[in-house]
Amino acid sequence: MKRFSSFSKVASARRPQPVAEVLGRTDAFAALRAGVEQISALERDLAQLLPDYLAKNVEPGFIKDGTLTLFAAHGALAARLRQINDRLLSSLQQRGWPVRTLAVKVRLRAVEEPPAPKQARMTPAGAAALQALSRSLPPSPLQAALATMAARHGKSTDEKQ
Question: Based on the structure, what is the number of domains in the chain?
Fold first, then answer.
């Protein structure tokens, strides 16, 4: 039993610990934690102050000598940030941020692949049913739309006969 008791002491010393507790142990980690918390708070405020399309594509940097650096995903977003610079700066100052100027820089992101176009196809039976339905209707926009859809998704029943 003695050999297991020493193992259990080591295992208990290596228990999982919250990141906040680990980051608070030394001055260097405490400074890192403060910086991370500052950026997190800035992200929350920017998400409230900026329109969605900007908030999703703008990352805050650190505040250094009263200058907050904002990183935009591409040049057009950077230009838009520069247009609203004064209003954004004023709003951040009202929220208590010690910011005198904003610097906007472009930090390109990897381009996300656009979603694949839909490749939905109708079965021949479905297309035939739509064609039959369109023939049974009087001339109308609905009748024309059903005929077009049936023609796009399969051979019309006229070609089979």
Answer: 2
